[in-house]
């Protein structure tokens, strides 16, 4: 039987690991937060005492951490996990990080006789809970096939974007567009409400008109317009604004590296920079509405 180690049990990793358990995978889990591990222990996961303990005896290692420096810190260096894993182990990092960082870790993994996929996800915390995530994979097709049962237990779409780092490149294009769309949706809703419109009626109109988009239709930023979205629970429990700021920064770095213009992505990054500086970094990213509408 395959033994899977799962490291990083936050807003995304927690529900993803729960879905693996529900689908019958044996998993051993680790997070720096004891509370996060407790939830998984109650659901039947084996709890590790450290990252090294978590990966001992695992055939597949999965990680879901916040940013590039967390991933490099976990895997690289003398005490990093790559130095401890037996040859042939498949390492899958699902965090959203810089493509350059994913390539650096993959090259170190390959040099150590391991296999590696970057496999960032899209679909939000609701998609993580429902097991409907999209996996955007970079690496070797044969390694993706070995990982496919795990991806299919946590998601419903799996794409091979290209070689190592390509999953991250595609994910960053997506999230740059998401940041722009969320800011634009919030701006339009604030304009409508200030013009005397009901935000729910305006959302229904735009959802059937040419302004329709994912942020408006599935993740509406106006409190009370939709049930079960962060805006309707005080912007808690979703995709933190500081993580969107990180992704818009990654998009800007990527654009600089390949001489692409990203004026709208840069504007969205500036809006999120101000929003985070205003103290909203831990709120869901749809709280950018507060930037346009102060009640
Ligand atoms: P989060 O902050 O809720 O969770 C991260 C978890 O990693 C935390 O529980 C933290 O304790 C743990 N952690 C950090 N360093 C660790 C280490 N060295 N060892 C063990 N555990 C460690 O973040 P999240 O929302 O779950 O996002 C995770 C990644 O997924 C990010 O890269 C984010 O950009 C991406 N993402 C998030 C969403 C979303 O809607 N939240 C959607 C798609 C992708």
TrEMBL record:
<dbReference type="InterPro" id="IPR015815">
    <property type="entry name" value="HIBADH-related"/>
</dbReference>
<dbReference type="InterPro" id="IPR036291">
    <property type="entry name" value="NAD(P)-bd_dom_sf"/>
</dbReference>
<keyword id="KW-0560">Oxidoreductase</keyword>
<dbReference type="InterPro" id="IPR006115">
    <property type="entry name" value="6PGDH_NADP-bd"/>
</dbReference>
<dbReference type="InterPro" id="IPR002204">
    <property type="entry name" value="3-OH-isobutyrate_DH-rel_CS"/>
</dbReference>
<protein>
    <recommendedName>
        <fullName>3-hydroxyisobutyrate dehydrogenase</fullName>
        <ecNumber>1.1.1.31</ecNumber>
    </recommendedName>
</protein>
<feature type="active site">
    <location>
        <position position="171"/>
    </location>
</feature>
<feature type="domain" description="3-hydroxyisobutyrate dehydrogenase-like NAD-binding">
    <location>
        <begin position="165"/>
        <end position="291"/>
    </location>
</feature>
<dbReference type="GO" id="GO:0051287">
    <property type="term" value="F:NAD binding"/>
</dbReference>
<dbReference type="InterPro" id="IPR029154">
    <property type="entry name" value="HIBADH-like_NADP-bd"/>
</dbReference>
<comment type="pathway">
    <text>Amino-acid degradation; L-valine degradation.</text>
</comment>
<dbReference type="GO" id="GO:0008442">
    <property type="term" value="F:3-hydroxyisobutyrate dehydrogenase activity"/>
</dbReference>
<dbReference type="GO" id="GO:0006574">
    <property type="term" value="P:L-valine catabolic process"/>
</dbReference>
<dbReference type="InterPro" id="IPR013328">
    <property type="entry name" value="6PGD_dom2"/>
</dbReference>
<dbReference type="InterPro" id="IPR011548">
    <property type="entry name" value="HIBADH"/>
</dbReference>
<keyword id="KW-0101">Branched-chain amino acid catabolism</keyword>
<dbReference type="GO" id="GO:0050661">
    <property type="term" value="F:NADP binding"/>
</dbReference>
<feature type="domain" description="6-phosphogluconate dehydrogenase NADP-binding">
    <location>
        <begin position="5"/>
        <end position="162"/>
    </location>
</feature>
<comment type="similarity">
    <text>Belongs to the HIBADH-related family.</text>
</comment>
<dbReference type="Pfam" id="PF03446">
    <property type="entry name" value="NAD_binding_2"/>
</dbReference>
<keyword id="KW-0520">NAD</keyword>
<dbReference type="Pfam" id="PF14833">
    <property type="entry name" value="NAD_binding_11"/>
</dbReference>
<dbReference type="InterPro" id="IPR008927">
    <property type="entry name" value="6-PGluconate_DH-like_C_sf"/>
</dbReference>
